[in-house]
Amino acid sequence: MHPRVKRYLIDAMSGMAQGLFASLLIGTIVKTLGQQLLRLGENPVFSFLVNAGNFATESHVVGAAMAVGIGYAMKVPQLVLFCLVAVGAAANVSGGAGGPLAVLFIAIISAELGNLVSKKTKLDILVTPLVTILSGALLTVLTASYIGKAASAFGNLIVWATTLHPFVMGMIVSALVGIALTLPISSAAICAALGLTGLAGGAAVAGCSAQMIGFAVMSFRENKTGGLLSQGLGTSMLQMPNIIKNPRIWIPPILTSLITGPIATCIFGLEMNGAAVSSGMGTCGFVGQIGVITGWYSPSEVAVSHGAAAISPTFFDWLGLILICFVLPAVITWAFGLLFRKIGWIKDGDLALDE
Which residues, in sequence order, are CB contacts of 284 under 8 Å at separation 6+? Predict the structure, then answer.
């Protein structure tokens, strides 16, 4: 892989996703927890949780966290990294619902420009911040709103299409986002940039869960409990070296995602209305499931813009979440894997993780 492709497509997107986790995602979880606890009665601790969550989910805070994550992943000099706080905040606020994509582009460019002049003059303490912040501000004024609108429009198109054609789009979104999760790119960042919520977000959660739980269960013979946990609660990306050696091992979880996606959209009406980044997380630390749950009680701004409203989940909702994210991926992928082993497409050791 070309170094620049890795730097911008993989490293920067992964850094952006981590910035989202450290601000919007954790803030949403904390805020929702506080809001639900306040139903039990007024308490200063519960109110503090709501306030803390609100602080972490402010648009300028989220933008700053994403930009710093991008800069850190790109290994830019410290002074450039600190300046990205202002750049990210400006880009995310100006980008609106599509702010994450604006932050990704603008932070990368301003970071590289700052990197070009960093430590090149005796006035580095002035030159580097000026170049980084002014270039970021100029790009924000010129492009952020357009990038944000384009990302938001494309995300809205996917959400609308999934609502209109839940069966077909459930299959497509589930399979593609699940594949992105296992590839060395950030499915979470993609979902955040597109604002993937609602039924489309639910299909994305289904696809990611199919990959993670599917590979974890299918490879239990080789990897035992350690592999079950590292893939089921960590990442299916661990299987990429094995996929390169034998691409057929990827077919069972992909087929599973093609099945669980439309089940999620058509039968259970599973919607992911929490932070859009959660749609691309699957079962990693149960972030995808927490996103669904927080979306039930306190939909995100992006989800609300798509027509979401708070609900009181029923037993059917909880059943759907458990089946789609855990039970069905485990059973279906295991069955496909067993078939593939019998016909010789998967051999013992093909799914073994490196020690």
Answer: 208, 212, 233, 234, 235
